[in-house]
Specification:
The structure holds 2 protein chains of 2 kinds. In chain A, α5 runs parallel beside α6. In chain A, β4 and β5 form a beta hairpin. The radius of gyration of chain A is 22 Å and the shape is elongated. Chain A has 2 domains: 230 residues, von Willebrand factor, type A domain (Rossmann fold, 3-Layer(aba) Sandwich); 47 residues, no CATH class. By secondary structure, chain A is α/β, with parallel strands linked by helices. Helix content of chain A is 39%, strand content 26%. A 6-stranded mixed sheet of chain A has the order 5-4-3-6-7-10, with helices on both faces. Chain A has a two-stranded antiparallel sheet with strand order 1-2. In chain A, strands 8-9 form a two-stranded antiparallel ribbon. Helices cover 23% and strands 27% of the residues of chain B. Chain B has 4 domains: 81 residues, no CATH class; 175 residues, Rossmann fold, CATH 3.40.50; 105 residues, Immunoglobulin-like; 204 residues, Rossmann fold. In chain B, a hairpin with a 4-residue loop joins β26 and β27. About 1% of the residues of chain B have low confidence. Chain B contains 12 helices and 34 strands. In chain B, the strands form 8 sheets. Chain B has a 9-stranded mixed sheet, sandwiched between helices. By secondary structure, chain B is an alpha/beta fold. Classes of the chains: A alpha/beta, B alpha/beta. At the A-B interface, β8, β9, α8 and β10 of A face β2, α2 and α3 of B. β8 of chain A pairs parallel with β2 of chain B.
Chain lengths: 296, 661
């Protein structure tokens, strides 16, 4: 049993489905809307019969009334493929006032994977360090979960972030529409990150971003001079935090604003999360929000 | 500025503590692994300018606050004398004006200027500490090292005197002293800047200035100007004194305070040989010159006394001392041929019933036999003396005698002049007209106005014949209508030769009518008689007021509180060996004129004198003062500045970080 799995939490969240905000395409029936018309019970629309249509789908009652052939189309339900893109660069190893960002990412990815597989959808995992490091293809099987969890547990963040390359690679590699959940501190160029999101969006993927920050990174509250050592490349900087706090916060504010704007541009579901945030409310809010957006 | 606890100045090094702490803190930093490096780098880049300056200012404020605290603890003393640029001084030469005018009290004070400034100098020297104090007082002019500033007001070399001060000589003396004294020095001049003491027109100033500037280490010159408002003050002085038979004639002058207005009544106390009388004197103007005739005791050979006015702002100028000797007959020789002119001149020189005056006519041919030792005056109505007669007259005038030359009736031969002075050709007025006096000096000379201001009716003089006195050395005192000289004067050593341009003869003028001749001749005789009484009157500091040989000094009068240790510099009546002498303060001490700042700068040009004005005022009693409070205030200001600089900028809180989930 992995430490990042909270069975009680998962059982409490079990009643909430993980929904996609865009129609999904799959090869098995599921509970998610499909862009194709199919044999679901959900009526979609009438359309005129054209040669080649399945005559079994003609609405005879309409023909009887109007002497015209109409095809009665229904919404097709299919399954959901979710890809959890976990940033495993060195910066995710940071542990300040909250728990490690990578640990928080594990919890989110594991919990949502569990919920997805539990509702019959497929969950996959992409780990990126300085490049796309590891991929676990999505699967609906319950046994697949253990592989996901083991992969998450084995993560050891290091090196510079290769998130942007990873996102572009994923956008290219995933043929079918999918839910792409990004778990990262996004310490990269917001403009380039926006390009990666647009790439995913272009491939009609549903994007959710969990922007993970440590409370200390947000508050930047230090009393005395510190020597800051970069977790990714090891460069060091001695600074008097009290002197640069204002500038730091300004830079952070600009960064967060830019990231939020890029996510909004790509219609990505953006969540800024500090690692001291309780997990259950976070996930409950995430799931509920997606549910309401889906029903609209 | 100097410091009393100089050892504590080492504490100023503690000002480096904030910087050291800052540097140690930078070295003792805590190492943290950090993820959000990009913001850190950007923040560091952006905070390099303004923030760094701010941080430096904070450190500077902290350092200065500590420095100010340590300066305050070191007891800083700011001296109005030394100014802020002061430092360690080895020698201070104090030139102290002890003249009589320094005894005046400031308007709101009880102590004289001299005492006030001494007290302040003592305080300044005590608080400054360390420097050697050398006193050169104006009375003695001798440098004297003062063992301790505390005794400065107590020693006799700083006590009150009735002397005048000779500043060119004093400054020169200070330079001479400093020439033999190595080290950094300053010259402080404490004076009321009385113009007559500074003698700004004296050529000796050039030498004094050069002496100061030629010193290897020219001293800073600081002048403690004891000027400003003074208490009301009147002064009395003796202008002249002579014995006339059983009377002593005193010419006195009272000068009222410059601010006095209107008529005033002043009680005048006269003590003569121990007997005092007081009478009320009415002063109609700012000053009054008057004659006081004192009847001497019968058979009095000699005596003394004083005349005083009530105590006021300056106690040293309220008394005039006098002394007199045995009566002498007032003798006048008239060197003239027998005739009307000689008769009138004899009458004018010894009017009948005018006590004790004698006149004797001498034929010009016998002039060489004149016994001038007993004469007060000579009236010479004959050709100019030549040869031994001329020498005789010249010696007589040099000894203080007065001679009046009148026209001889003929032109003076070119070689028959007296010290370059002679006569023009006789000149007659046009028929039916006269030579009339139009202009004469009413404040000086034989035709001056009387003591009570009444003029001599010289305009009544009518002359039909005249001779004009001629000579480069003659100073005209009266002129005829046509501008020609009637009366002129030649001062020779102690005496005077007068030249009168007409004769008391009916063929010449109505000079014999006494309107002009009598007062002129009597004044001439009075002035000539003073040479006999001059031996009884002197001034403080004069040569004859000193001791000769084995003489001893004994004070005879009972005025005031004499200081035996200072007797040589005090006015009074003294017995000096066999001599009886009334010694008064120099008349220049009554002169109210003060040297201007510009003139002072000129006198000490090159020495860059620092003028501390109003040093004699009682309001500001500090020539130096502790300024530790100022440093503590400075420390507080630095701390407040540091606090303000440490406050976070207001706009930081306005833009919050976007809320996290």
């Amino acid at each position: 049993m992995h430490s990042f799995i909270d069975r009680d939490l998962l059982s409490r969240l079990g009643s909430l489905p993980v929904e996609s905000r865009v129609p999904m395409m799959g090869n098995v029936a599921g509970k998610h809307r499909s862009p194709h018309r199919g044999s679901s019970v959900e009526f979609a629309e009438y359309r005129k019969y054209v040669a080649g249509d399945d005559t079994r789908r003609l609405d005879w009652k309409v023909f009887a009334r109007s002497d015209r052939f109409y095809i009665k189309e229904f919404e097709a339900d299919t399954n959901l493929r979710a890809y959890f893109v976990v940033d495993a660069s060195g910066s995710m190893e940071f542990e300040g006032a909250g728990e490690k960002k990578i640990e928080f990412a594990r919890k989110i990815a594991a919990s949502l994977s569990y919920l997805l597989v539990n509702q019959g959808d497929a969950a996959g995992l992409s780990i990126c360090t300085d490049k796309l490091h590891l991929e676990v293809p999505p699967s609906r099987r319950a046994a697949h979960l253990e592989r996901l969890f083991s992969t998450l547990a084995a993560l050891e963040p290091e090196g510079p972030t290769g998130l942007l390359d990873a996102l572009h690679t994923i956008a290219e590699k995933i043929a079918q529409r999918a839910l792409v959940v990004i778990l990262s501190d996004l310490f990269t160029d917001p403009a380039e990150f926006g390009d990666a999101l647009q790439h995913l969006r272009f491939r009609k993927h549903d994007i959710a971003v969990f922007h993970l920050m440590d409370p200390q990174e947000v508050g930047f509250e230090f009393e005395r001079p510190h020597r800051f050592v970069d977790l990714e490349d090891g460069t060091a900087l001695v600074a008097e935090p009290s002197l640069i706090a204002a500038e730091y916060k300004t830079a952070l504010r600009e960064f967060l604003t830019a990231v939020r704007a890029k996510c909004s541009d790509a219609s990505a579901d953006y969540q800024l999360v500090t690692t001291d945030t309780p997990l259950e409310p976070l996930l409950r809010e995430f799931l509920t929000a997606r549910l309401s957006k889906t029903k609209k | 500025m100097t410091f009393l606890n100089t050892a504590l100045l080492w504490g100023v090094l503690a000002a480096s503590i904030p910087v050291i702490i800052h540097l140690i803190n930078r070295r003792r930093h805590k190492t943290v692994k950090w993820a959000a490096m990009q913001f850190l780098l950007k923040a560091t880049r952006e905070s390099r300018g303004k923030k760094k300056l701010r941080h430096i200012l904070i450190l500077t404020c902290r350092a200065l606050a500590i420095a100010a605290l340590m300066f305050a603890a070191a007891r800083p003393v700011v001296s109005g004398l030394l100014g802020w640029g002061g430092g360690a001084i080895d020698t201070v030469v104090l030139i102290l004006d002890r003249s009589a005018s320094m005894e005046i009290r400031p308007g709101d004070g009880l102590e004289p200027r001299r005492a006030i400034v001494l007290e302040r100098i003592a305080e300044a020297m005590t608080s400054l500490g360390g420097a050697r104090l050398v006193l050169i007082d104006s009375a003695t002019g001798d440098p004297m090292e003062v063992p301790s500033p505390d005794v400065l007001p107590e020693i006799s070399q700083t006590s009150a005197t009735d002397t005048a001060a000779d500043f060119p000589a004093l400054v020169t003396r200070a330079a001479e002293y400093l020439a033999e004294t190595p080290g950094r020095s300053e010259v402080w001049l404490a004076s009321d800047l009385q113009a007559t003491n500074w003698e700004a027109s004296e050529e000796r100033w050039a030498g004094a200035r050069a002496s100061i500037l030629a010193l290897p280490q020219p001293p800073a010159v600081r002048i403690l100007a004891l000027t400003g408002e003074t208490a009301p003050n009147n002064s009395i002085s003796l202008v002249g004194s002579r014995r006339a038979g059983d009377e002593l004639v005193l010419d006195l002058q009272i000068v009222r305070d410059v601010a006095a207005r209107g008529t005033a009544n002043i009680p005048l106390t006269i003590q003569l040989d121990g007997a005092s009388t007081t009478e009320m004197l009415t002063l109609p103007a700012q000053s009054l010159t008057f004659q006081q005739r004192l009847t001497l005791p019968p058979d009095s050979e000699s005596g003394h006394g004083w005349v005083s006015i009530p105590a006021d702002g300056n106690p040293r100028d309220n008394v005039a001392y006098f002394a007199y000797g045995p009566d002498r007959p007032v003798r006048t020789a008239i060197v003239a041929p027998r005739g009307e002119a000689a008769s009138y001149l004899s009458l004018a020189a010894a009017p009948p019933g005018y006590g004790g005056q004698e006149a004797e006519r001498i034929d010009p041919a016998d002039a060489t036999n004149l016994n001038t030792s007993e004469l007060s005056a000579i009236l010479w109505a004959a050709p100019m003396p030549t040869g031994s007669a001329a020498n005789l007259v010249e010696d007589f005038v040099g000894d203080g005698g007065h001679v009046m030359f009148l026209p001889p009736g003929s032109a003076t031969a070119p070689d028959a002049t007296f010290l370059g002075a002679g006569w023009s050709e006789p000149e007659d007025a046009a028929r039916g007209s006269f030579f009339i006096l139009q202009d004469w000096n009413r404040g000086d000379g034989l035709l001056r106005d009387g003591l009570d201001g009444s003029p001599i009716t010289a305009d009544r003089l009518r002359s039909i014949r005249r001779q004009i006195p001629q000579g480069d050395a003659l100073a005209p005192l009266a002129r005829w209508e046509d501008g020609e000289v009637f009366l002129s004067r030649m001062v020779l050593d102690r005496g005077t030769a007068w030249f009168l341009g007409s004769l008391p003869d009916y063929t010449w003028s109505n000079l014999g009518d006494a309107d002009v001749l009598l007062p002129a001749v009597q004044r001439l005789i009075a002035a000539g008689s003073e040479r006999f009484d001059a031996g009884y009157i002197s001034t403080v500091g004069a040569r004859d007021a000193g001791l000769f040989g084995d003489e001893t000094r004994t004070r005879l009068d009972d005025y005031g509180k004499p200081d035996p240790a200072n007797a040589a510099h005090e006015a009074g009546v003294y017995r000096l060996g066999d001599r009886l002498l009334a010694v008064n303060r120099p008349s220049i001490e009554d002169d109210p004129e003060v040297l201007s700042r510009e003139r002072l700068d000129e006198l000490l040009e090159g020495a860059n004198p620092t003028l501390l004005e109003q040093a004699g005022e009682t309001g500001d009693r500090t020539l130096s003062r502790d300024v530790w409070r100022a440093f503590l205030i400075a420390m507080l200001l630095f701390l407040i500045g540091e606090l303000l600089l440490c406050l976070p900028p207001r706009n930081n809180s306005a833009e919050a970080i976007p809320a996290a989930a």
